[in-house]
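tool=predict chain=A
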Amino acid sequence: MLNVVIFGPPGSGKGTQSEKIIEKFGLEHISTGEILRAEIKSNSDLGKIAASFIDRGELVPDHIIVGMLENRLDVLGAVKGVIFDGFPRTIEQADALKVLLSKRKEFIDVMLNLEVENDELITRLLKRGETSGRSDDNLETIEKRIQVYECQTAPVIDFYKQEGTYRGIDGHGTVDDIFERISAVIEI
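tool=predict ok
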C-alpha cells in the first residue's frame, strides 16, 4: 500500500495536486477539509463547531479531526493506498496518524511538502475566493490561516524529516510542472 501525506500552506495547491496523484497512482483521497466542509454543509453539530473555528481562521481541535479520520479509514477497506490532504496539521495529529496506520500494519511512505512563498499564496487564495465563494478566502482570514500554519503546522515538517519520509517540492510553475516533480518523487 502507498500512503502519501501532501502538505503545504493554504493555497499551495494540495487539492489540485491530490487529484492528479489519485488519477495516476490510484490512491484514495482523504481530505480533512472536504470532510469538514461536508459536515458544515449538512449543518451537523460537528459542522457547527468546526465552522466556528474555521471562520476565525483557527484549526479544528485534534480530537474532532482524528475521530473523523479513523471513521473514514474504517470505511475504506482494502485500497491501493491513501493520500492524506490537509492532515496532519500538528505534531499530535502526525503521531495520531502514525498510531492509526500502525494498527493497520501500515505507515506513511512519503510526505510531499509544496513550497510556495506567502505573497504567492495570498494571490492564489484571493483569486480562488473570487470564483469559489468560500468564506475563508478573504485577506484577513487568509493572513490568519498562513500565520496559524507557520506557527502550528509547519513543525510537522520536522516530524517527517525525522521519520525519513519528507520530500520538499517546488510549488511554483504550472500544475503539470509541479505534478512532474511530485511524480518523480513518488516513483522512486
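Residues 55 and 181 are 33 Å apart (CA to CA). The chain has a mean pLDDT of 89.
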